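Suppose a colleague, Dr. K., hands you the sequence of a protein chain of 301 amino acids and asks what its three-dimensional shape might be. Before reaching for any lab equipment, you can write down a predicted structure in token form. Begin with the sequence itself:
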Amino acid sequence: MNLPIVYHPDYVAPLPAEHRFPMPKFKLLHDLLLVDKIIQPEQVYLPELPSTELIELVHTPDYVRGYCEGTLDSKAQRRIGLPWSKALAQRTLMAVGGTILTAKLALEYGCACNTAGGTHHAFPSYGSGFCIFNDLAIAVKTLQHQGLVNKILIVDLDVHQGDGTAWIFQNEETVFTFSMHCEANFPGKKQTSDLDIPLPIGLDDDGYLQILAKHLPDLLTEVKPDLVLFDAGVDTHVSDRLGKLALTDWGIYRRERLVLSTCFAAGYPVASVIGGGYSKNIQELVYRHSLIHRAASEVYF
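The predicted structure, expressed as tokens, is then:
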């Protein structure tokens, strides 16, 4: 199959310098996938800006309006961790549109990969941890609202717990949240996912993969989702500035293969987002984000 890739080019004016990290990785990731022949141009889809109504399926109108208009107070801005600009606001909305599109393409093709997304720390009325709007939650609510799915499994393998996502869906029987994350890492106050697996500092490839392999097949059998949303954060890497785990590039690739092949064998479609990654070396970071795309191209071919 021609695996769908959702790409986020610079739709808006260039971002101010203080907003550019890690924004350049989106284009660099797209270009790397083309150069390495992981994808062809005809596999690339471009997202559209989502309507305010879709954003407000998850977020409060006051927060959506305040962020989009740049009128949030200084405390709310500090909690997000990114200085506001009109360009960044539009980029944020586009990322949400990308995850919605990725989820819809996954239902059609069996798998689709976003080159952005994974803002799982955003809560309904505030942003946190570099996350402004929760693209995972909005995509879930949008697909359910449009009658495209009923049950969804969120597999969050970012090194940080998906606390915003867990809180949003804490009473939702149709959404199962699964988070494997470093126990001694942000956020300081964890929320309660349907299944949380806190991991010790320094956990390596084999230890990590054994834990994941033990839980994922049973989860699929239990949940029987119409769609799996996979947050493939690469901040689990041993050299990540904000990580504290010890996975290698090879370990992350094996993780992606494990998730995708397990879902594929069981017949469940997967929509992936790239999640977090905070290496100082942008080329190394982009390569790690490409591992989900490399694994998907192999599993689904």
